[in-house]
Amino acid sequence: MAVQQRRNSKTRKRKRRTYYKLQKPALTKCPACGEYKLSHKMCECGQYKGEQIVEVEG
Predict the structure, then answer these.
(1) What residues form DSSP beta bridges with 48?
(2) Can you tell me the mean pLDDT for 9-35?
(3) Distance between CA atoms of 44 and 38, rounded to whole angstroms?
(4) What is the mean pLDDT of residues 15-27?
(5) How many CA atoms lie within 13 A of 57 on its CB side?
(6) CB of 18 closer than 8 Å to CB of 24
(7) Reported pTM
(8) How far apart are the first and last CA of the chain?
(9) Strand partners for 27
(10) Residue 37: is its pLDDT beyond 90?
(11) Mean per-residue pLDDT, 1-21
(12) Are 42 and 28 in contact (CB under 8 A)?
């Protein structure tokens, strides 16, 4: 296992930890039903890129 040879400064430690924060998901609005969905995913209404992929009952 690696052993630290020198003490890391506070700045160096904080730079490493900047990527630990949470990111909100990229949501897009469905042009057919208007609901928000994740990018590159099929909507609940069954459409993807303006085409009807799956028939949804109800």
Answers:
(1) 51
(2) 88
(3) 11
(4) 84
(5) 0
(6) no
(7) 0.55
(8) 59
(9) 38
(10) yes
(11) 86
(12) no
From residue 35, give the alpha-carbon distance in Å to each of 13, 16, 20, 46, 58. Answer: 41, 37, 30, 12, 16
Per the prediction, the chain carries an average pLDDT of 89
Q: In sequence order, what DSSP letters do the residues of 1-58 get, joined into one string?
A: -----SPPPHHHHHHHGGGGS-----EEE-TTT--EEETTS--TTSEETTEE-S----
Cα 10 off chain centre by: 29
- Count of CB atoms situated within 10 Å of the CB of 45: 16
Say which amino acid occupies 14: R
Taking phi over 0 as left and psi of -120 to 50 as alpha, with beta for the rest, 40 belongs to left
